[in-house]
Design brief:
alpha/beta, 8 helices, KR_dom, lipid metabolism, SDR_fam
């Protein structure tokens, strides 16, 4: 157990599984307390119970503003402070050709991935401003938000919007000592990734093998890799960083796996 989040309090949406669960567990391991906000009641209650007195569960559909506000308020009502908020709840949403996309499905996707993030930032900022002790808000974007072709259209729109929101909210909230940043994960072996890749959300072994084969670093990422990035933003280590997006993808979107045509040392002369 460390102390990078000692005596601090955070709310994690989508905290009952995947990246959210890993982050909640890491924050507690580093001395903090968390409210796990998730629509999966049974799973959320189990995760909170496993963390003991350092965790509470709040049933939360992030498309319902009152439920998000209640989860944020629960943290303050329980522990008297709010130091961090991780706007992480998400879905893949509608996929398929843009010419065939039902707009109701598009709207539902953005309701979770953009509206849900927005209201989390809204109510975290409300409490942090009232408390007057600053704070750190982190959002989950995606490599699909920084490079085309890595996610369905609606998902890509949403994850790109999250990066813009991190910048605009950071510009406003800096005056209150509140930092706002985003994490853009690459493919991480979670139930959601397994479902997209294999059609089976429980087939983590197969999706892990697939990611490892295609990773520039030769291994699959872990949910804890993302949790560590979130903790960096929320901890004193990231205290001078705001309005930024960290891409955690083994360098895939930066071209780390160079094309063989360009990997040799040579001079290329234009004629």
């Amino acid at each position: 157990m460390g102390n990078r989040f000692e005596n601090k309090v955070a709310v994690v949406t989508g905290g009952a599984s995947g990246l959210g669960e890993a982050t909640a567990r890491l924050l507690v391991a580093e001395g903090g307390k968390v409210v796990i906000a998730d629509y999966g009641v049974e799973r959320g209650e189990a995760v909170a119970a496993s963390l003991g007195d350092a965790a509470r569960f709040a049933p939360c559909d992030v498309t319902v503003e009152d439920q998000v506000a209640a989860a944020i308020d629960l943290a303050v009502d329980t522990w008297g402070r709010l130091d961090g908020a991780f706007a992480n709840a998400g879905i893949v949403g509608v996929a398929g050709p843009i010419s065939e996309t039902p707009m109701d499905d598009f709207d539902r996707t953005l309701a979770v991935l953009v509206r849900g993030v927005f209201v989390t930032v809204k109510h975290a900022a409300r409490q942090m401003q009232t408390l007057g002790n600053g704070g750190a808000i982190v959002m989950t974007s995606s490599v699909a938000g920084v490079q085309g072709g890595l996610g369905p259209h609606a998902y890509t729109v949403a994850k790109t919007a999250v990066i813009g929101l991190a910048r605009s909210a950071a510009a406003e909230l800096a005056a209150h000592g509140i930092r706002v940043n985003a994490v853009a994960p690459g493919s991480i072996p979670t139930a959601m990734t397994a479902h997209v890749t294999t059609g089976d959300p429980d087939n983590l072994e197969k999706v892990t093998e697939h990611i490892a084969r295609t990773s520039p670093l030769g291994r699959a990422g872990h949910a804890n890799d993302i949790a560590e990035a979130v903790l960096y933003f929320m901890s004193d280590g990231g205290s001078y960083v705001t309005g930024q997006t960290i891409v955690v993808d083994a360098g895939a979107t930066s071209g780390a796996k160079m094309s063989p045509a360009w990997s040799g040392t040579r001079m290329v002369v234009a004629r």
